[in-house]
Amino acid sequence: MAEIKGINRFFLLATAPLFGLLIALILSGPKISWTTEPELITADAQQMNQAFGSISSGLEQAEETAKYTISSIRETAELYHKTTNTMTTIVQTAQNTAAKPEIIYNKRITAKLGSPKETIKSERIILELYKVNPGNYKGYAVKVKLKSPEAMKMTLGGDKLGGSETTKQAVSRYGAVAGINAGGFADSKGKRYPLSTTMLNGKYLNGFEPSYKDLFFVGMDKNGKLIGGKFKDKAQLDRLEPSFGASFVPILLKDGQKTAIPLKWQTSPLRAPRTVIGNYKDDQLIILVIDGYNENGNSGATLQELQDKLYNMGVVNAYNLDGGGSSSLVWNGKVINNPSDGQLRPVPTHFLFFK
């Protein structure tokens, strides 16, 4: 009995707070009424039905809105893709249309050169090698499309003033894919110096010298465009922003017109190995390297012949570079022309081309 009484006391103590809470709610809280009257139950049911109906209607409306939104998004996406595709087509068509004149012009150029013997192509440059054989002389033409100014440079023999090296040595030393001899030179005390105004990396090697007699300066500007001519003062040349260039004689074509070839250069020598550089109106370069078996005037081409050929090819500007035994053309590590000295002559300046 004592154990049972102990349990009862424990039960009462444990449940006392609960009973106290229930009594407090009954005395102070809202009255909780439990009813079974049909009218009240029906009213509550109607309210619930109305609420569920409203919720259901809202859900249906939301579903329709979602469907419409998804449909609109799909339509917008489809319209976007169609518009994008249309714009891409328009841009491509515009690019193709814009390129057509260039393609047509290039075909006109190559039609007068024939089929290229070899081609070197990269993202920076396109070089095409052609044979030239009009009957009176033989040689090679190289058409150059510079896509980057960095694809062409002028180098100095042994990288020092007064130094000299063959075009093949320069090509090999710099890792170029092609190269030609550049300006004229003068020998002094066992050294070979560039003739007159010469620029390398945007700097004058020996100062500026105003053009005199038949001398000209030819080179490239910082944008990779051929520049050249006679310059009476340094400011006149500086305005063209030259990157590099060399000097020699004479000018063959200027602004699409033939220039007067001085009598001295028409006959001394009459025929000779030649190196000529020029450009078309689209800024592509053209190089002619003509073979000859000596410098006695009996082999090679006359300047008049080259002038006529370049003019008929549609070349805009053309400049005669150092010729005779200096004429050289190196292509993919090989000497392409036949140097009149029987071997390449070391010269102070070279124009090199890079992939």
Automatic annotation (TrEMBL):
Residues 174-354 form the Phosphodiester glycosidase domain. InterPro entries: NAGPA. PANTHER family: N-ACETYLGLUCOSAMINE-1-PHOSPHODIESTER ALPHA-N-ACETYLGLUCOSAMINIDASE. This is Phosphodiester glycosidase domain-containing protein.
